[in-house]
Amino acid sequence: MTPDLPQRGEIRWALVPHAAEAPFAFAGVEDPLDFAAASAMLRTRGARNRQDIVLPAVIRPVLILHGWESASHGAYVALRTRRLEALSPATREAVLADAAGGLVLLDGASAGHERAAMIAGISGLHGSAIDHAVVGRASAKTMRRVSERIADRLELDLGQMISDRVEAVLSGLDPA
Prior knowledge:
It is a single chain. This protein is of the alpha+beta class. The chain has 2 domains: 10-18 and 58-171, Roll (SH3 type barrels), CATH 2.30.30.110; 20-55, no CATH class. The protein has 4 helices and 8 strands. It has helices spanning 35-45, 89-96, 140-153, 159-171; strands at residues 10-17, 25-26, 53-54, 57-64, 75-83, 103-105, 115-126, 130-137. The strands form 2 sheets. It has a 6-stranded antiparallel sheet with strand order 6-7-5-4-1-8, covered by helices on one side. The longest helix has 14 residues, at 140-153. The two termini are 40 Å apart.
């Protein structure tokens, strides 16, 4: 394991693009806001060609969700984070009481620097957009809570997978 590669539970600074939002700014088009021109250019090039769009981005701490790089494009999955002091008082209290379904308090922060992971803030980030320095680590307990919240918020049906794993464990037990 290379220490510079992002690992599950690490908090690192990353360049996080905002979601694409109309009107789009197209790169390489005379009027970067002209969708018709970009569309016409793509149609003349064929169906498999791409058009680059300009996206605003911010540098912010993210929580790394896994320690493996996408084989196809070098991306990692992370959650955006928010400072607790940036939240409304009611939301901050809900986060501290573990009652805010879409936010999970991240442990290990120094006083005044507390952050919450934003369950709806899932981002695919290229490894080159993630800083090498680790600025924090979430505990295994916090990461389990994050995983549970993601499954709950995305309404993932994990029943069969859990049943299969329980069956596999039980089949390996000695009946004696």
